[in-house]
Amino acid sequence: MREIASAGWPRNDICSVIARSFATKQSNLLKFLPALAYAILLFYLSSGVRTTPAQINDKILHIMAYGGLGFLVAYGIQGTSNFKALAIIFIAGLLSTLYGVGDEIHQYFVPGRFYSYGDMIADAIGSFLGAMAFLILLQWVKKFNGRHAISK
Fold it and tell me: Per-residue confidence at 100, pLDDT binned at 50, 70, 90?
């Protein structure tokens, strides 16, 4: 029977299979940590009293904030699946938008805050733009690295 060099377990041993499966899932889940941390930051910021300066359009801030979330969710999805680009954009945009809707509902219960359908639309626009921006950047990096690969 073949052995796994690092653990010394037979390849077909149930413990070995579970350990490999857990290690793979754990490393895949780590790719979502930036999105989770960013979502927690958004929740924290939306829990306080609104402090948007008068000269900044609120909808622009929502597009930028949820663009970041869409970008990071797309990063997590791309790193853990074999989805095509359109599927990544759709899933990341939808998940980020649903989070934005939940956050707007959460704001309804925060004193001094309110929910807005316009904010939800801005969240959705930002979510999908952020996911698209991630994939555009990823393609650019792949193209750039292909042209400037250093041979050893």
Answer: very high
What does the alpha-carbon distance between residue 117 and residue 67 come to, in Å, rounded to a whole number?
A: 17
Output the pLDDT for position 51: 62
Query: Residue 36 has which token pair?
Result: 């989770």
DSSP 99-113: HHHHHHHHHHTSTT-
Q: Identify the pLDDT of residue 28.
A: 74
- The residues near 85 (Cβ < 8 Å, ≥ 6 apart) are 135
Please give the Cα distance from 8 to 45 (Å, whole number): 49
Q: Which two tokens stand for residue 125?
A: 């626009």
Mean pLDDT value across the chain: 81
Cβ burial of 22 (10 Å; 0-12, 13-18, 19+) is exposed
* Cα–Cα distance measured from residue 43 to residue 37, given in angstroms and rounded to the nearest whole number: 10
Q: What is the pTM of this model?
A: 0.76
CA distance readout (Å), 88 to 16, 23, 73, 84, 135 = 32, 24, 9, 6, 9
pLDDT band at 4 (very low <50, low <70, confident <90, very high): very low
Contact 19, 9 (CB under 8 A): yes
Distance of CA 140 to the CA centre of its chain: 19
